[in-house]
Design goal:
- It is a single chain.
- With about 625 residues, this protein is α+β, with helices and mostly antiparallel strands.
- The protein has two domains: about 190 residues, Penicillin-binding protein 2a (Domain 2) (Alpha-Beta Complex); about 325 residues, Beta-lactamase, CATH 3.40.710.10.
- The protein has 22 helices and 23 strands.
- The strands form seven sheets. Strands 2, 3, 4, 5, 10, 18 and 19 form a seven-stranded mixed beta sheet that branches. The chain has a five-stranded antiparallel beta sheet with strand order 12-11-23-22-21. Strands 1-8-9 form a three-stranded antiparallel beta sheet.
- Strand 8 and strand 9 form a beta hairpin.
- Helix 14 packs across helix 16 and helix 15 runs parallel beside helix 21.
- The longest helix is centred in the first third of the chain and has 40 residues.
- It is elongated.
Length: about 625
């Protein structure tokens, strides 16, 4: 019995040992299978992940090209900006790291967490931008506590720097962060979320030249994401520099002359279409668009009744007022309804149908021909010319002068203005054209609308003998090293279809505006520069029956807009100018002095520069002799 029990115990122990051994072998088999799976089947994947954890690719931003004026003076360059970002994989635990970082940056932690929440879908190894352009104190605090902020990095990035605050804002434009629609459009190759692109003005028009080509570097990082060494670098290619046609001094002068008023100035080379100055007032600071614009800043911009974001030079549409009499005179002379000897008597009013049309001068101008009518801006004369022409013939000449359609300047959102015809009114309102409406059109009122740029193009064509040029804002494109890539050339887009004798009569009348004894802008003449022009006032509201000459004082926003177009010198024009002052009332008082100062600034400077060049040339020849 004892022997039997002993054998039974031995068998039981053997079974237990066998079971334990089977379990141990099973565990080892599982471990072995797992090791084979991890190292053989998934080895490549985990090797890649390991490298990703140790080796990182960092983007190198391309320096954006500079923007300069025609003389090579810098308008826009770049400045260093210190941006703070975080790599989530290295920043564990993220809430604790964010809490510490928020104290150093002096911002609420929730603001930083919202940036992370808004970056869903971004790889855990990709940096997320938390705050741009941090100040020196914040930068020093973050750098001093770097080891306590795993995954946090400070990167130096070049930020756009507009040298003259609010200077040429509407022409140069600004940058802003690319949005998802723009990214998906395919128009911005190489761009990614967080990049800044041109959104307005020349920054947008020449984005493909300015942006450059991104570079990169391969770096090794430690467990906290800090760079241990740089393994490989591919440098970024800087963007090209663009040279605008504007003269910085003249642009600054134009902006100073518009200070405190709403309006626009366009100055142009008559013989090429090059824009010398393009100013719109009020302006805005482009630098705020690249930073973190507050809701208060945005609300101030869009709620401003004077519309600072509107480029009034190309987007503002206004009745051209008496400046349009240039077109009426051209059409009347060319169509033969008047000639240089045709005279009408102006008693201060003109009766047509059952209505009396007033002249701006209550006592009238007496007997006038076309040159005197332009010089003194006689409404009665042009009422009768318009009546004889009819709306459609008048419209044909206006369009041939470049009015009623965009000029094609390389800037966004250019307005086309409006030149009405009988068919246009019938289609729009269902009402036939009334002959009396043509009288209002003939003096630049009624449905007529034009932009300051269109009027600058018109007066430039009058100045140069009838050739219409496409307005140019780009002079040339050069590499960062100064090599010329592109030189822009003037482009003719049409001719004013009139004889030289017609132009001569109109130019004589425009000369008299400044230089005649009764010219409407004689108070703006210059003693040493003879120039020609035309004043204009365009009504915002119609005149009351009990105030036919508009003498009653009106609220500021209901006063007429003031116009003045001019070219100088009269005989060999080098500059053409259009000035519009909203609610300025009289072109002679509000707009003509602006043009006078621009002409004086530009021509006297050119005379001085040319004289210096001649003196230096004489000196060089003398020394070589």
């Amino acid at each position: 019995m004892a022997k039997y029990l002993k054998n039974a115990d031995s068998e039981w122990y053997r079974q237990r040992i066998t079971g334990v051994m089977i379990c141990v072998l099973a565990v080892f088999a599982i471990i072995l299978v797992r090791l084979v799976y991890l190292q053989v089947i998934m080895g490549e994947k985990y090797h890649t992940l390991s490298l990703n954890n140790r080796i990182r690719l960092q983007s190198i931003e391309a320096p954006r090209g500079f923007i300069l004026d025609r003389n090579g003076r810098v308008l826009v360059d770049n400045r260093p900006s210190f941006d703070v970002s975080i790599v989530l994989k290295d920043a564990r635990p993220v809430p604790e790291t964010i809490g510490k970082l928020a104290r150093h940056l002096k911002v609420p932690p929730q603001d930083l967490m919202s940036k992370i929440s808004g970056s869903k879908g971004v790889s855990a190894y990709k940096p997320i931008l938390l705050k741009q352009d941090v100040g020196r104190n914040s930068l020093a605090s973050v750098e001093a506590n770097q080891y306590d902020l795993p995954g946090v990095a400070v990167n130096v990035k070049l930020r756009r720097h507009y040298l003259n605050v609010q200077g040429a804002s509407h022409l140069i434009g600004y940058l802003s962060e690319i949005n998802s629609v723009e990214l998906a459009s395919g128009r911005y190759p190489g761009r990614r979320r967080g990049d800044f692109i041109g959104k307005f003005g020349a920054e947008k028009a020449y984005e493909k030249y300015l942006r450059g080509i991104r570079g990169g570097r391969q770096v090794e990082v430690n467990a906290t994401g800090q760079v241990v060494q740089v393994l490989k670098t591919v440098g970024a290619k800087a963007g090209e520099n663009i040279y605008l046609t504007i003269d910085r001094n003249l642009q600054t002068k134009a902006e100073s002359l518009l200070q405190g008023v709403a309006g626009a100035v366009v100055a142009m080379e008559p013989g090429s279409g090059r824009i010398l100055a393009l100013a719109s007032s009020p302006s805005f600071d482009q630098n705020i668009f690249e930073g973190s614009m507050s809701h208060e800043q945005w609300d101030l911009l869009i709620s401003n009744p004077f519309r600072p974001l509107e480029n009034k030079a190309i987007q503002g549409e206004y009745p051209p007022g008496s400046t349009y009499k240039i077109v009426t005179a051209l059409a009347g002379l060319e169509e033969g309804v008047i000639d240089g000897n045709t005279e009408f008597f102006c008693p201060g009013h003109y009766r047509f149908g059952n209505r009396t049309y007033r002249c701006w001068k209550q006592g009238g101008h007496g007997t006038v021909n076309v040159t005197k009518a332009l010089t003194e801006s006689c409404d009665v004369f042009f009422y009768q010319v318009g009546q004889r022409l009819g709306v459609d013939r008048l419209a044909w000449y206006a369009k041939a002068c470049g009015l009623g359609s965009p000029t094609g300047i390389n800037l966004d959102r250019e307005a086309g203005g409006l030149i009405p015809t009988a068919a246009w009114k019938k289609k729009r309102t269902g009402i036939a054209w009334q002959e009396g409406e043509t009288l209002s059109l003939a003096i630049g009122q009624g449905f007529n609308l034009a932009t300051p740029l269109q009027m600058a193009g018109l007066i430039a064509a009058i100045a140069n003998g009838g050739t219409r040029y496409k307005p140019m804002i780009l002079e040339s494109i050069k590499t960062a090293g100064g090599r010329l890539l592109q030189q822009n050339q003037p482009r003719v887009v049409g001719k004013i279809p009139v004889r030289s004798s017609t132009l001569a009569l109109v130019r004589e009348g425009l000369w008299g505006v400044l230089n005649g004894a009764h010219g409407t802008a004689r108070g703006s003449r210059l003693p040493d520069i003879e120039f020609s022009g035309k004043t204009g006032s365009s009504q915002v509201i119609g005149r009351k029956k009990d105030d036919p000459f508009g003498k009653e004082e009106k609220p500021a926003h209901l006063r007429a807009h003031a116009w003045f177009v001019a070219y100088a010198p009269s005989e060999a024009p080098q500059i053409a100018v259009a000035v519009l002052v909203e609610n300025g009332e009289h072109g002679s008082g509000a707009a003509a002095p602006v043009a006078r100062e621009l002409i004086k600034t530009y021509l006297r400077k050119r005379h001085t520069t040319n004289q210096v060049a001649r003196d230096e040339d004489v000196a060089d020849k003398g020394s070589s002799g």
